Amino acid sequence: MSHVLLEGKTAVVTGAGSGVGAASAQRFAEEGAAVVCADIRLDHAKETVRRIEAGGGVAVAVETDVTQERDIAEMIATAADRFGHVDIVFNNVGIPTPRLGATLEDHTFQDFQRLVSVNIGGVFLGCTYAVLQFKRQGSAGVILNTGSVAGLVAWGGAVYAATKGAVHQLTKAVAIEGAPFGIRANAICPAGMPYTGFMAAGGLESSAEMTEKLAASTAANHPLGRPITAQDCAEAAVFLVSDNAANITGVLFPVDGGYVAR
Ligand SMILES: NC(=O)c1ccc[n+]([C@@H]2O[C@H](COP(=O)([O-])OP(=O)(O)OC[C@H]3O[C@@H](n4cnc5c(N)ncnc54)[C@H](O)[C@@H]3O)[C@@H](O)[C@H]2O)c1
């Protein structure tokens, strides 16, 4: 029995240079997809491509800032030109508040606009150009977005949480609009992942000691007692973008060790 779930598909992954995006790009390639690895840090996207190619997979790196419409248009066009069609678009990029632990009133309006621009603006652009491409091809296609448990339950982090709540609602509405065209849209909602680049992006000291402290506190919050890893998310992503999930759309899929079930 073949275990290759994405044979013949072309997948685009944003934020593919690190964390969830890098792990997912690799897993998609292992499952037979040709992968366009998009990241604002081209050198990091290229490193993911190198790893995929070392494993015998097919991938290409593109420099993409998800807040720039022209970059997103080029990202989708690159996938279509190189591989003939686009089947999967994983809008995974998200950034934390510039100062981790910041409360609502700690944010300047500029901070707010930056989070909105990347976290929901980037997903809006990614979904829009995915839908345009799927309709142009006249074929079904799959969108996956990265939300967060922060958009499902409130623990603080108001501005980040609001952007992720918006990602969730956008995902569900795109699923409904896309359904008549065979387009599916789902979101994964990870809980705390101390081992990706995300915490450092949030200005948290990224020493090994700090990471382990964070891992311990994250684990304590999860009923299953472990932090979430990028690999956990990648496994959920593979399932949701594959034909095994052909009748699943509009779902906000927690990857959270039971966190939101509590
Ligand atoms: N780490 C966590 O605790 C956690 C928890 C819940 C949800 N999430 C979400 O998971 C997703 C992936 O996060 P991660 O933990 O893998 O983070 P990460 O920082 O390891 O990876 C994010 C990648 O996105 C890229 N990126 C940032 N801004 C970009 C832009 N404007 N355009 C293109 N690329 C850009 C970065 O260069 C990086 O390679 C995000 O949406 C994040 O909000 C993370």
Feature tags:
globular; 7-stranded parallel sheet; 46% helix; alpha/beta; NAD(P)-bd_dom_sf; 7 strands; 262 residues; Rossmann fold; oxidoreductase activity; SDR_fam; binds nicotinamide-adenine-dinucleotide; oxidoreductase
Task: Provide an overview of this structure.
The radius of gyration is 17 Å and the shape is globular. It has a 7-stranded parallel β-sheet, with helices on both faces. Helix 3 packs parallel to helix 4 (109-137). It has a single domain (10-242), classed as NAD(P)-binding Rossmann-like Domain (Rossmann fold). It is built from 8 helices and 7 strands. The model has no long low-confidence stretch (mean pLDDT 96). It has 262 residues and is of the alpha/beta class. It binds nicotinamide-adenine-dinucleotide. Nicotinamide-adenine-dinucleotide binds at residues 14-15, 17-21, 39-41, 44, 64-67, 92-95, 118, 146, 148, 190, 192-193, 196-198, 201, 230. Keywords: Oxidoreductase. InterPro entries: NAD(P)-bd_dom_sf (IPR036291), SDR_fam (IPR002347). This is SDR family oxidoreductase.
State the helicity in percent bands.
Answer: 40-55%
Contiguous helical run count: 8
Principal-axes shape call: globular
Number of domains: 1
Calculate the terminal CA-CA distance, rounded to whole Å: 38 Å
User: What's the SSE pattern?
Assistant: EHEHEHEHEHEHHHE
Question: Which CATH class is shown?
Answer: Alpha Beta
Using DSSP, what is the number of strands?
7
CATH domain fold name:
Rossmann fold
Q: What is the SS-derived class?
A: alpha/beta
Low-confidence stretches: none
Major pleated sheet: 7 strands, parallel
Strand content range: 5-15%
Bound molecules: nicotinamide-adenine-dinucleotide
CATH architecture: 3-Layer(aba) Sandwich
Radius of gyration over C-alpha positions, nearest whole angstrom: 17 Å
Keywords: Oxidoreductase
Pfam families: adh_short_C2 (PF13561)
GO molecular function, one term: oxidoreductase activity
Organism: Nocardia flavorosea
